[in-house]
What we know:
This protein has 262 residues and is an alpha/beta fold. It has two domains: 6-31, no CATH class; 51-256, Beta-carbonic Anhydrase, Chain A (3-Layer(aba) Sandwich). It contains eleven helices and five strands; from the N terminus they run H-H-H-H-E-H-E-H-E-H-H-H-H-H-E-E. The chain has helices spanning 3-19, 24-34, 53-68, 81-88, 108-111, 131-143, 158-166, 176-181, 185-188, 197-219, 221-228; strands at 96-100, 119-123, 148-154, 233-239, 246-248. Helix 10 packs across helix 11 (221-228). The chain is globular. Bound molecules: zinc ion (ZN). Zinc ion (ZN) is lined by residues 101, 103, 126, 154, 157-159.
Amino acid sequence: MRALPLILLLAVLPLVADEHPAPAAAKAKAQPKVVTAPQAPAEASVDAGPSTPKAALAELSAGNARFVAGKRVRTLDTGQDAAMRAALVKGQAPFAVVITCSDSRVPDALLFDQEAGRLFTIREAGNAPDLQGLASAEYAVEHLGSKVIVVMGHTSCGAVKAVREANGKPLPGNLWALQAGMAGLLESTPQDPNEDAKAHLAHLEEANARRQAQALLDRSPLLRDLVTAAKVTIVPALYNLASGKVQFLKAVAAAAAAPAHH
Ligand SMILES: [Zn+2]
């Protein structure tokens, strides 16, 4: 019954206006208020992402499970593309940062089944972010509110393989930067006498994801504070090219990070 007074008011409004003639401009302006415009459909097409680190990780995990099963739902409906763009022009709030390799076989949005506006992706060969990669991650969590940072290596990584095979000798061109980005990796994960080159490479790929995730904390007081406050979580992961499955490893802990230098 609460709607009734409003209906009466709307019905009476034109009469009231007639009794007290207003300037033409004001009268014309008042008209659209009576006829309420429907919400633009574009508004509804982009939902708010997960609001906690735990929920963000769960959504990535669920999206990857859909991809593995061949049952993607968020990245299939091309009929929504125009509405999605229109909604995203206003801004972005990606719930996850994905730091991964540039390898063309690692399609980040598809493998997590997330459309535009949901993932803030930083890609560099060997998923070893340089200073600007680190700044990009800080920007995403600080300014855009991302809740989780996934540092994702993958099987058959050419960048890790190149660093392994160079074994400390400088690679040509600017590829030395890859070696610098993975400094200490070979020393941390020596080849076991019982494992072949392929098995050793697999160990290096996993160790690199873990080390790069930990390095984010060691290099960034900003990220360290957010992880300590449980506002952000940093999780190493490995993507399997064959199965499409992402294996999430243990989140890195701020307590294990080096103390800040003053
Ligand atoms: Zn790679």
